[in-house]
Amino acid sequence: MAGYIVEDTKKITTQKVLQMKKDGKKIAMLTCYDYTTAQIVDQAGVDIVLVGDSASNVMAGNATTLPITIDQMIYHARSVARGVKRAMVVCDMPFGTYQVSREDGIRNAVRMMAESGVDALKLEGGEEIIDTVRGIINAGIPVVGHLGLTPQSIYKFGGYGVRAKEDAEAEKLIRDARLLEEAGCFAIVLEKIPAGLSKKVCRNLTIPVIGIGAGSADGQVLVIQDMLGMNVSFKPKFLRQYAQLNDVMTDAIGQYVTDVKSGDFPNEEESY
Ligand code: KIV
Known about the structure:
Structural class: alpha/beta
Distance between the termini: 33 Å
CATH architecture of the largest domain: Alpha-Beta Barrel
Number of domains: 2
Strand order of the largest sheet: 1-2-3-4-5-6-7-8
Number of strands: 8
Radius of gyration: 20 Å
Largest sheet: 8 strands, parallel, barrel
Helix content: 40-55%
Number of helices: 11
Bound molecules: 3-methyl-2-oxobutanoic acid
CATH topology of the largest domain: TIM Barrel
């Protein structure tokens, strides 16, 4: 266990992330939404902590990422930023905060950075939002792109299936990835696309490509509740579960309930 605790606490910067790709070092990214978990994730050596808008699903129980608000994302992001010393913290711009206009996107991005204390923001989309991405980067804010299955567009896609299987969508994705790199993004997330396409994008770009359900890439990202096995009903092909926390937590909480009801807890040593 102690072997996983990271001793080098020097902060991960955008320059370091770019250097990792140059050096052929893989990037470990993981989502997180609260202070206590952020401390554990950081100590375990995760390079980039993503305050994903998947908080809408896993923290709030919504069916999609669309309902989460900018205030709720700032609350999660600020909590995570307080718990992290070494990792870079990236926060998703939620649905509706950057799609309306470039000005609106820049204003919301500036607010999110100023109020949350994170290091960078992530936006979903390519050509459609490229002027906004440029404007946010010109404002001094590092940006991560996100292509492929972009969950904020789930109603346009009509489901969570693999994206860019057809040539036209794959070619657009390659063009979008190049545009995002040219606009100044320092990394791109590719979600749920064929592994061959992801490899092609990795080869074409100098910035790191971080995959989720996209085969091998310059790095990987997963939702922490999924990889810890907290949600038993969610087990897509791309997910590797590193623990069965649902079982561990259910057993522990069940034992607590038994002990309270039997009068075994608290005992004398646990009393003042
Ligand atoms: O919100 C999120 O968790 C994400 C990852 C799935 C990449 O965007």
